[in-house]
TrEMBL record, chain A:
Catalyzed chemical reaction(s): Cleavage of peptide bonds with very broad specificity
GO cellular component: cytoplasm; nucleus; proteasome core complex
Keyword Cytoplasm belongs to the record: yes
Function: The proteasome is a multicatalytic proteinase complex which is characterized by its ability to cleave peptides with Arg, Phe, Tyr, Leu, and Glu adjacent to the leaving group at neutral or slightly basic pH. The proteasome has an ATP-dependent proteolytic activity. This subunit is involved in antigen processing to generate class I binding peptides. Component of the proteasome, a multicatalytic proteinase complex which is characterized by its ability to cleave peptides with Arg, Phe, Tyr, Leu, and Glu adjacent to the leaving group at neutral or slightly basic pH. The proteasome has an ATP-dependent proteolytic activity.
UniProt-recorded name of the protein: Proteasome subunit beta
Gene Ontology molecular-function annotations: threonine-type endopeptidase activity
InterPro entries in UniProt: Ntn_hydrolases_N, Pept_T1A_subB, Proteasome_bsu_CS, Proteasome_sua/b, Proteasome_suB-type
Self-association and partners: Component of the proteasome complex. The 26S proteasome consists of a 20S proteasome core and two 19S regulatory subunits. The 20S proteasome core is composed of 28 subunits that are arranged in four stacked rings, resulting in a barrel-shaped structure. The two end rings are each formed by seven alpha subunits, and the two central rings are each formed by seven beta subunits. The catalytic chamber with the active sites is on the inside of the barrel. Component of the immunoproteasome, where it displaces the equivalent housekeeping subunit PSMB6.
Chief location category: cytoplasm
A biological-process GO annotation: proteolysis involved in protein catabolic process
TrEMBL record, chain B:
Gene giving rise to this polypeptide: LOC110510028
Record has Hydrolase as a keyword: yes
Primary location: cytoplasm
Similarity annotation: Belongs to the peptidase T1B family.
Organism field: Oncorhynchus mykiss
Subunit structure: Component of the proteasome complex. The 26S proteasome consists of a 20S proteasome core and two 19S regulatory subunits. The 20S proteasome core is composed of 28 subunits that are arranged in four stacked rings, resulting in a barrel-shaped structure. The two end rings are each formed by seven alpha subunits, and the two central rings are each formed by seven beta subunits. The catalytic chamber with the active sites is on the inside of the barrel. Component of the immunoproteasome, where it displaces the equivalent housekeeping subunit PSMB6.
Functional description taken from the UniProt entry: Component of the proteasome, a multicatalytic proteinase complex which is characterized by its ability to cleave peptides with Arg, Phe, Tyr, Leu, and Glu adjacent to the leaving group at neutral or slightly basic pH. The proteasome has an ATP-dependent proteolytic activity. The proteasome is a multicatalytic proteinase complex which is characterized by its ability to cleave peptides with Arg, Phe, Tyr, Leu, and Glu adjacent to the leaving group at neutral or slightly basic pH. The proteasome has an ATP-dependent proteolytic activity. This subunit is involved in antigen processing to generate class I binding peptides.
Catalysed reactions listed for this entry: Cleavage of peptide bonds with very broad specificity
Keyword Zinc-finger (UniProt): no
Protein name listed in UniProt: Proteasome subunit beta
Active site (catalytic residues): 33
Pfam entry (one): Proteasome
Domain of life of the source: Eukaryota
Length: 223, 232
């Protein structure tokens, strides 16, 4: 039946029977000189919001972050593994690691354990060789670099917005506006996304983090 | 997931009759679809893509999903092609009869409620998502959406079908109250193009229609004339 008002067993609350999931909308955009990444802040267990101020933008190295969607446990575990592997590699190399390396490490874990995992990850950052880069590693474990990438359950609602509003060679501020606009649209439509918008801009000079609270988000309707 | 795994844990047999018939012969014919409708002062603009699929096979690439119910009332059909055709035929008959009894053009709200009655009563058997739109003398241009399950609600803008998910963000950010007919047509064309680019079940040409007191104006935007949003 479609659209039931309630579901599941009446004996136990809905949230005890569902896995903790980062329902989510995540996004990353390349610009000349770096990347802008963004995410909502809602973690759900069924219909219960287990964490309304989640930080889904996870540092993997100084200038490399990942945006996590899917199972909260799986993505945390993978991110921890990759953080260790990349840190070790960087020390051996005696150099800052490449974003492409971090992305391939994610791919290696997500592909090998694809049957057991539910993880959709966007890897983004800056390195000396190729500047700002965004790599997406969706469920299943493929890897592809894209100038813009969206992920998570809320992403379906903003493909049209993204396709029509993204232009190549945008500035950092234009990217920040694009990402915060897109995330607020997705959070308005997707029940599994919400809370605040977390943004980060990563460039040669460092990482600049921002939070946009619910009441400060761009409003698109009069309702 | 479309991938097929052969492993010892699969409950199905290694050999089954489903392999003897093409995939498209096992799937119901469906209007995969993107449909939409927008109210403006003086009428409505409605739009749809033109793809009907049976599984991965495109059974009709020039489908007309904008179906007349009465002189100034149309419906946009999504879901099962058979179900929506059947329901639309029923409502066309009921509304025509009602209009003759009344000796007046029927109200859009009446047409919408007739759709709702059928879609709600047979909700368990039907797979039909319908947008009813048109013009009448009492309330001007109106859009009513009757999604699967059979609820009814009037909205200034409505999108439906599998491709609609991709354009909610575009719709929320680009729709402004008080648009003119041409602005609505442009808005619909862009929205349909974006959805058709992303949804595998939507494609072909974009069909549009503007319904006002004066009458009906139909347009077709061919694939190569649709707005392009990427360089790829």
């Amino acid at each position: 039946r479609f659209g039931q008002l309630s579901s599941g067993s009446d004996m136990a609350p809905d949230w005890t029977m569902k896995e903790v999931s980062t329902g989510t909308t995540i996004m990353a955009v390349e610009y000349d000189g770096g990347v802008v990444i963004g995410a909502d802040s809602r973690t759900t267990t069924g219909a219960y919001i287990a964490n309304r101020v989640t930080d889904k933008l996870t540092p993997i190295h100084d200038r490399i972050f990942c945006c996590r969607s899917g199972s909260a446990a799986d993505t945390q575990a993978i991110a921890d593994v990759v953080t260790y592997q990349l840190g070790f590699h960087s020390i051996e190399l005696d150099e800052a690691p490449l974003v492409q390396t971090a992305a391939n490490l994610f791919k290696a874990s997500c592909y090998r354990y694809r049957e057991e995992l539910m993880a959709g990850i966007i890897v983004a950052g800056w390195d000396k060789r190729r500047g700002g880069q965004v790599y997406t590693v969706p469920v299943g474990g493929m890897l592809v670099r894209q100038p813009v990438s969206v992920g998570g359950s809320g992403s379906t609602y903003i493909y049209g917005y993204m396709d029509s509003n993204y232009k190549p060679n945008m500035t950092k501020d234009q990217c920040l506006r694009l990402v915060s606009g897109a995330l607020s649209l997705a959070m308005e439509r997707d029940g599994s996304s919400g809370g605040v918008v977390r943004l980060a801009a990563i460039s040669e000079t460092g990482v600049d983090r921002q939070v946009i609270l619910g009441n400060q988000l761009p409003k698109w309707s009069t309702a």
